[in-house]
Design a protein that fits this description.
single chain, alpha/beta, 20 helices, four-stranded antiparallel beta sheet, two-stranded parallel ribbon, RNA-binding, about 525 residues
Length: about 525
RNA sequence: GGCCCCUUCGUCUAGCGGUCUAGGACUCCGGCCUUUCACGCCGGCAACACGGGUUCGAGUCCCGUAGGGGUCACCA
């Protein structure tokens, strides 16, 4: 049997991080079994702009390297892959269900059903539709229509017995048919509802394993009823736990941003994103730009591998110690049996730890390549970049080392890309290291002359110069180095001092020191 | 409320009856390194929800309780 899995996003305009994890599990399972991973678009409620709302989702998957064998843009033998284009299939299924008596026309008005529901609630009994307005013959239908009633199609669910679902993750789960409702599968206007559509599609696409979020577990009985009534062979089910809020067990939702922002780590991540986005002139509307949405990570320069690896371990593990997986390894090692049953909460700090790790592992050339677009977008570097810029960025990226966690962090070093009179001084650092340290200013003044006389300006030479200066003046290096850093970068912190000077070059260093000294009393 | 699911350090998790005075990772807290900030290194704090069984023996099996969550639409 060919393994075929699917992920069915609604075209909402963004890709939710929890959804990605579900998609990832589907993708891994399909790849592991040399099967196919299908993307089906759940657009049954006819959004206006499906195409526009779909693009960010497809883009997100592409960025993460989760490729689909069939679906939008690639099509496939079982298409169309948009539910809005499959109405005829659903219609045929409805007719078959009606024919076999598994479904019926129901002429109840919504308020009539609602009244029954409320009565049951008041009586504290289990609600079960009376089927009063059920019409199974042409005569009955005509009579109701005479009254001006319209029909929906309902499932004629069994009212006794039970169903055991053998879930690949949860084991056997038992449901009583009597608790199930005669769900509507087709509206009066002929449009079909989700549960019917999903069952028909999964069958048409020959999906072998339905791997989806656990919130669908309770919906599974009715889907099984539909499938069996239609004579379909059942797929295997695997209900994965959802991704929960930071520090909680509640399902992560994009609508509760303000709540998550109260979580310190989440807020920090969000701030990191905002800081970078601000310099890039990005749209930062919280609806589309926040750590619950995959786009966020791409835009601020996260590594897709880090996100994927983190998500993989959110609810799954191989053993008691393996943390890092290449794509090949995760495809090889993944298994549904080892997916946890309990929800896992989204931990920004852990995600950052993976990002740091992958960034450290990234070859220098690729790091530079990741950073350049950010410098361009922030207009710190022209597009196309001048030919010597790559060398300069390489030096900075090297010197920055682990200080670059996401590619957008390169913008923390913008002082290297602006004019000597344009970089800004951090007030605090300026005060502490210069204004309130007149002796350091004096040392800076004399070290400026040493630099001025320097014939070579590489980090190694500069270190020898400064160390010699320190020995000669009989001072501690800290007495000059902090002042020097503020003088040439405007900042109190940064990477190695000598690398800083080298990257700036002699001319810039002298000009910057002069500019700084000019701001101070003599 | 009915039904269903879940419950090991703050978080992600290992554990499938004895090797568990519960292991790893992230976080946090010390210390070292150091020109700042990071990195790195060393060390430390920290958990089997509770109560009954079963068993020679339970984190591991069973039953309750509590807590958390999901689902009960002419949404997906």
């Amino acid at each position: 049997m060919t393994v075929r899995t699917r992920f069915a996003p609604s075209p909402t305009g963004y890709l939710h991080i929890g959804g990605v994890r579900t998609a990832l599990f589907n993708w891994l399972f399909a790849r592991q079994h040399n099967g196919q991973f299908v993307l089906r678009i759940d657009d049954t409620d006819q959004q206006r702009n499906v195409e526009a709302a779909l693009q960010p989702i497809l883009e997100g998957f592409r960025w993460l390297g989760i490729d689909w064998d069939e679906g939008p843009e690639v099509d496939g033998p079982y298409g169309p892959y948009f539910q809005s284009q499959r109405a005829d299939r659903y219609q045929a299924a409805v007719e078959k269900l009606l024919e076999t008596g598994a479904a019926y026309h129901d002429y109840a008005r919504p308020e009539e059903v609602q009244a029954e529901r409320e009565a049951a609630e008041k009586a504290k009994t289990q609600f079960s539709y009376s089927r009063t307005w059920m019409a199974e013959s042409a005569e009955q239908r005509a009579a109701y229509e005479q009254e001006g009633r319209q029909a929906v199609v309902r499932l004629k669910m069994p009212r006794e017995g039970s169903l055991i679902i053998s879930d690949l993750i949860r084991g056997d789960v038992t449901f009583e048919w009597a608790r199930e409702q005669d769900h509507v599968i087709q509206r009066a206007d002929g449009s079909c509802l989700y549960h019917l559509a999903t069952v028909v599609d999964d069958h048409d696409f020959q999906i072998s394993h339905v791997i989806r979020a656990e919130e669908h577990l309770s919906n599974t009985p009715r889907q099984i009823f539909i499938a069996q009534s239609l004579g379909y062979e059942l797929p295997q089910f695997a209900h994965v736990p959802y991704v929960a809020e930071p520090g909680s067990r509640t399902k992560l939702s994009k609508r509760k941003l303000s709540k998550y922002l109260k979580n310190r780590d989440f807020a920090n991540l969000n701030d990191l994103g905002l800081k970078i986005a601000d310099q890039l002139d990005l749209e930062t509307d919280t609806d589309t730009f926040n750590p619950v949405i995959v786009d966020f990570y791409e835009q601020v320069g996260f590594l897709a591998d880090a996100i994927v690896n983190y998500l993989l371990l959110l609810g799954w593990s191989l053993d008691d110690r393996t943390e890092f997986f290449s794509r090949e390894e995760m495809i090889r090692d993944f298994s549904l049996e080892r997916v946890n049953k309990a929800p896992a909460s989204f931990d920004c700090l852990k995600l950052m730890a993976f990002e740091k790790h992958y960034m450290q592992e990234l070859p220098l050339k690729q790091k530079v390549a990741k950073c350049l677009p950010f410098l361009q977008q922030a207009k710190l570097v022209t597009s196309p970049p001048p030919c010597d810029i790559s060398e300069k960025v390489t030096k900075i990226v090297t010197a920055a080392g682990d200080r670059l966690t996401v590619a957008g962090d390169i913008l923390d070093f913008k002082e290297f890309f602006v004019g000597n009179n344009e970089f800004e001084y951090e007030e605090k650092a300026f005060g502490k290291r210069l204004e309130k340290a007149p002796e350091s200013v004096e040392l800076l003044r004399s070290f400026r002359e040493v630099l001025s006389d320097a014939t070579a300006f590489d980090a190694e030479t500069l270190e020898i110069l400064l160390k010699g200066f320190v020995t000669e003046k009989e001072i501690k290096i800290g007495q000059i180095i902090h002042a020097l850093r503020v003088a040439v970068t405007g900042k109190g912190v940064g990477f190695g001092m000598f690398e800083t000077l080298e990257v700036l070059g002699k001319d810039s260093c002298l000009k910057r020191i002069d500019r700084t000294l000019a701001k101070l009393p003599t």
